[in-house]
Amino acid sequence: MIRGGATYIMTNETHTTLYTGVTSDLKNRVWEHKNFFYPESFTAKYKLTKLVYFEGFHRIEEAIGREKQIKGGSRKQKENLINSINPEWKDLYKEVLEW
Questions:
Q1: How much is the pTM?
Q2: How far, CA to CA in Å, does 22 sit from each of 28, 72, 75, 78, 88?
Q3: CA dihedral 72, 74, 78, 79 (to 10 degrees)
């Protein structure tokens, strides 16, 4: 993994809710989402355990900027972004483990 940071999008099994986040440790952060490490969190409440998009950056500041850009977009824009790299909306967590 690029050491700076990553921006990512999580969803649930029915793809009804999206969550955009940023982290310096994508492997660990997605594990936390999948295992409801923070049981009161938004992602736990809506069971957002499926990683459908991620993008790595050399600097965490770049990842934060990208997160803000994605969060500022519409749901349709987020769907288009996901579809551009993951048209089947597969869980990409296994790819992150090898990243």
A1: 0.94
A2: 12, 14, 18, 15, 23
A3: 180
Range of the domain at 58: 5-98
Domains contained in the chain, number? 1
Q: What is the pLDDT of residues 3-53, one digit of tens each?
A: 699 999 999 999 999 999 999 999 999 999 999 999 999 999 999 999 999
**To 10 degrees, what angle do helices 75-85 and 60-71 make?**
130
Give the count of beta carbons closer than 10 Å to the beta carbon of residue 22. Answer: 21
What one-character DSSP code corresponds to residue 57? E
CATH code of the domain in which 26 resides: 3.40.1440.10
